[in-house]
Amino acid sequence: MSLPPEKTSELKQIIQSHLKKINIHGKIQEVLAETARVDPGSGRLSEEDFRRALQRRGIIDDVMKDLRFSQEKATKTASGFPSKPFSHYGDKEMTELRQNPSRQYLHLQVLGGKAFLEHLQEPEPLPDMRENFLLELCRDNADGGKVMDAASMLSICDPIHFVLIKTDISGETTLVSSYFLDWRTVLSSTNSKTCFAVELMGVGSECKVPAGVLTVNLELYPPPAVNLSADVISTQQSLERTRTAEKDRLFLVYAKQWWREFLEIRASHQSKLVKIFAQDENGVNRPVCSYVRVLRAGRLLESSRHAARFVSLLAHERAPMLGGGTGKQEQWCTLMAFLCRGKGDCEDHATLLCSLLLGFGLDAYVCMGTKAKGVPHTWVMTRGTDGTITFWESLTAHRYLHRPVDPDAPPLSPQPKPSSPYRTVGCVFNHQTFMANCQPSDSVELCVFDFQNPSRWKAMSEEALRSVCGPGSCTSLPPLPPLCAPSLDPSAASNQLEMEMRYLVYEHRKDLDLGTVWDDHLCYLLSSALSAYEMERCTGVSCGNEEFQDAVRRAVPDGQTFKGFPIHFLHRNARRAFATCLRSPFCEEIICCRGDSVRLAVRVWVFVYPENACAVWLMFACKYRSVL
């Protein structure tokens, strides 16, 4: 499409003004001078070489990222993806980093994505995927304020973990890719800056299928005085891979021998649920102990009970499986992928809860066994200093005190009744320990958790586990991500959802030819009940019920009837929640209430936890005078 002459002239003026504003001529002269200084004997510089030099320095990206035309913005906004500015650190911040090199930083830029297979059939354009991250580089037990040389940075083998999540219009999330990037190639790049494409692979059954491509830019601040050669970096990476492969091989040999010894104890051990390895989202077999780490939440979680509540708010969803059948897809998730996705299977919940309980100083283990009807399940167990055994259900935050049955007790002696839903236990593990149940029966009600007794529990060598699961043991272990503080405003989220609920109630009653009158005072009184419900879920202690009942009695006149219906959700989708409420006959009776002087109330309270996990409490209520 051609432009009229006046528009062409206007466009040229806009571009020239922009180039002058960012001092493009000065930057080009710097690149020319630097290229001539680095390679003085190359002769004449070709146009292609000069373009590559400009691209390596990020000058082309700097020119293009700020050029935005009104038509482009309108197109992106209309397509459902509002235009997002390139959220980069400004020139002022970067200048300060260059002038005050007190710390070492890696500036990671995601410049965009393409060729995402799941998105090719959709009419909407690919969302803007440009992001910036400033990562501080430091070694363990090293002075964080000291600038490192390239050789020191080469010893930092922790990769950058990319997790790509797709979110649909209803808020449902799907894990698209999980990729580990070795950033150390930047140590051999000119000016410690490099730009390249990263091919992302799918997850689960599609882990061998490309999912898409990201364009990534890496830059070190400040750049090291001397760069490393590409051969040095590849040699280091090869040595690390060889060392890791040898450790994995030796552990596999040990695990096979340990398993043969376990089967020789009893023939029935073949059917026990003992799992030494588990596949992650990338199809990589890892020791189950590597999925548990000591995780401290700082001030984001107040206690172990709050940790259990937080984990239970992450939705439960089994890994998707292509095709039919009733089998279960084998997929455990790395902690980063689980937290980003916000949902996972019982194994993901149990390993996260165990990690958090270890952080709170408890002697915690993940248990693998079965529930009713032989359904495989995973939960958490803690051992008190007095020998008390407590089971923690990570999907609900319920706790159960375990009291084993004594099979040798006299027939008429009283025995404790099973308090938990668990039927058998095959093995227990944490970040340092793996033990298989070798008692005559794997029934939970008969199980004695005396781990020091080798006739009851067969333990793996802690040294062998440490070689593949300990800190710094190998480069294949994913780095441990910290929990993120919530960015959601609980008051604003509560108010928004409550207004949407009022509108839905009004429309529903309007369809029934019923009027809607709200009692704002009664709405406010419901807050204390919702707060008490959440406190009880967290701590197991009920409080404040007497005050709530007294306040309701004062608010409801004699001769009138009060009805209330509380319900709990893990999402903030108003229409979905309202549809669920209407499926309850008791709630529908309140919403569709008929009578004299009918007054309605609804209260929403959103309790926000780390990673924006939400406990949404909703209560409908009404007061009315019955007319016979």
TrEMBL record:
| Domain CEP76 N-terminal as annotated: residue spans | 10-67
Q: Origin organism of this chain? A: Oryzias sinensis
Keyword Secreted among UniProt keywords? no
Which Pfam family, giving just one, matches this sequence?
A: CEP76-C2
Q: What is its main location?
A: cytoplasm
Q: Where is the CEP76 C2 domain?
A: 127-223
- What is the annotated localization of this protein? Cytoplasm, Cytoskeleton, Microtubule organizing center, Centrosome, Centriole
Q: Which domain of life is it from?
A: Eukaryota
One GO BP annotation here? regulation of centriole replication
Q: What is this protein called?
A: Centrosomal protein of 76 kDa
Coiled-coil annotation reads: none
Checking Gene3D superfamilies in the record gives: 3.10.620.30
Recorded family membership: Belongs to the CEP76 family.
Q: Which GO terms describe its cellular component?
A: centriole
